[in-house]
Amino acid sequence: MTNSEIGANGQTLSGDIIPLRPSSAAQKICPHNSTVSCASCRLNELCLPIALNKSEIHQLDAIVERNRPYKKGEHLYRQSDEFKAVYAVRSGSFKSYFLSNNGQGRVTGFFLPGEIIGMDGIASHRYANSTAALEHSSVCEIPFTQLERLSHELPNLQHHFFAIMGNEIAKDQQIHTLLSSYTAEERTASFLLGLSSRYTRVSLSPTRFLLPMTRGDIGEYLGLTVETVSRILTALQRKGLVSVSNREIELLDIESLRGIISTS
Q1: How many Å is the Cα radius of gyration of the chain?
Q2: Residue ranges matching CATH 1.10.10.10 in the chain
Q3: Which of 2.60.120.10, 3.40.50.2300, 3.40.50.720, 3.20.20.70 is the CATH number of 26-167?
Q4: What is the pLDDT along the chain (264 residues), one digit of tens a residue?
Q5: Sign (positive/negative) of CA torsion 246, 250, 251, 253?
Q6: Rounded distance between C-alpha atoms, residue 127 and residue 118, angstroms
Q7: Which CATH class for the 174-262 domain?
């Protein structure tokens, strides 16, 4: 589930994607079909069962709830709702966002198939963010009390879940660095490289994809205005580093994009 990110040390920054032309491996990814089990899911190397044997996977599968699909804009949960479960994305994509007391919003993350949503609610027993579908999507709901109980019985599951939590902490630290010290161009290049990295994880093209999120969502996530995001994408296109057509993105020169980050 790890969201790789790009910082000054060469790590990649996260973002979400959907394929323009999925490969044969991508076509095997869990669809919206609620009858798919953890054992048969094509995402099980990215999700919680990664370290489990067949018997243990069946134990996990017994507590997983496979809900109806979510329509674009529909919420998994809202900020301050009681924390009851974490969610593994099976298909589609989601965004999380935070609303301040004055009603001002900020996008805090994007989630792809195989990634875990909802861990922001563990500490306070209330979700810190709202999370909504960016497109027609589906999830596996994992009730947290049952997950905790099972984790005590299955050390491999507990270890993997702790690793997921550690990656979330590292991601938050890297995003803070991005917002506090990167230029607009560096933030945008880092975001695109993050898309490429996460695209690769689900066996899809790292260079050509569609963005399920709007440029406004990207701007909120990167701490930039919509106009700035559009301006930077146009500038990168003029340099021959990317090709942009509405939400279609093609990375033409990944090494040069990495060079933008390495100079920071």
Answers
A1: 18
A2: 174-262
A3: 2.60.120.10
A4: 433 333 333 333 333 333 343 433 333 444 455 556 666 665 655 566 556 677 777 787 777 888 789 999 999 999 999 999 999 898 899 999 999 988 888 999 999 888 889 999 998 999 999 999 999 999 989 899 988 888 888 887 777 777 777 777 777 777 777 777 899 999 999 999 988 888 788 777 899 988 999 999 999 999 999 999 999 999 999 999 999 998 899 999 999 999 998 765
A5: negative
A6: 7
A7: mainly alpha
